[in-house]
tRNA (guanine-N(1)-)-methyltransferase (Maribacter algicola), 224 residues
Amino acid sequence: MRIDIITVLPELLKSPFEASILKRAIDKGLVEVHLHNLRDYTDNSYNQVDDYQFGGGAGMVMMIEPIDKCISQLKSQRNYDEVIYMTPDGSTLNQKMANSLSLLENIIILCGHYKGVDQRVRDLLITKEISIGDYVLSGGELGAAVLCDTIIRLLPGVLNDETSALTDSFQDGLLAPPVYTRPAEYKGVKVPEILLSGNFGKIEQWREEKALERTEKLRPDLLQ
Ligand code: ADE
């Protein structure tokens, strides 16, 4: 998979890809992530990417021209399955969306700033709009990092134990069951007996029950 991220703040997006699972995925060649500084696609002397909004009002708007130039250049080199715009008014990211995006070959992610982008960018260039939640970030970069993390960890070969993404919360529409490790007893609090029994059929059944119990208690909306 290849992910091209268009941003005015590439430095904000570097570190998530330089550590841990994402770095390993890149080093193993399982994913390519390319950051593109939108200011490199301006032809004014101030490298200006935004301007006042028509009709007046507070806040600057990102101009279509540099965005179009950058996206067109990328599209001239390969086909893209989706051109995603990170915005608080997009569809809220969930596991199902991450699963389907992880099957794609090439995607572009555009990070918004200021009051957002000229509507013509959204009408003409964007194929999907994604929000990471009902709150406003100062830019789309942290949202893009979240989106990339959730997609990349699903790519085959990225996690050491390939089944572990399958047992994540949400993968079967439920929250994950509780997990324990050594010691079997800590300050008088014991690990549930069943987990030490070696009876894997019973353990699986217990986990399913706990997953359901937890979901009913913490996220009943997932069961509706
Ligand atoms: N940009 C600003 N707020 C955002 C959000 N909640 N999700 C994605 N991109 C954003």
Remarks:
- The CA atoms of residues 2 and 160 lie 21 Å apart.
